[in-house]
Description:
Oligomer: single chain
Mean pLDDT: 94
Structural class: alpha+beta
Low-confidence stretches: none
Radius of gyration: 14 Å
Number of strands: 6
Distance between the termini: 20 Å
Strand order of the largest sheet: 1-2-3
Amino acid sequence: MSTLDFDRTYAPDGDITLQTLSMELDRADTVTCRARITRGRRSHDLAATATGPIGAMTEILYALGVGVEIVSLSQERDGDETVVYLLCERDARRVRSYGRGRTGDEAAVNALIAGANRFTA
């Protein structure tokens, strides 16, 4: 499988696009994530507080009606990027997705968006 085919399969462009994301440390070892996400033609400004960015983005996706559960996660370094691979589940259906980023958190958020797009395709 070529890199292009891999990207199209496991990190497809889709109905859900992350426009902006900010993360702030909050009290009691939590983080508040604020995101602008486009779903279809509508833009949504959402926020969630959780024990980490993965939990917060999961809550944000559920608020949009496209929530996914993470069944398994693995990550590796590829040069100056982190790559996260996910096995996601929704309504007893499973898909694999992946995301890249400067940090593990950024890559995991991108992988979650890719997983949500795979379910909505």
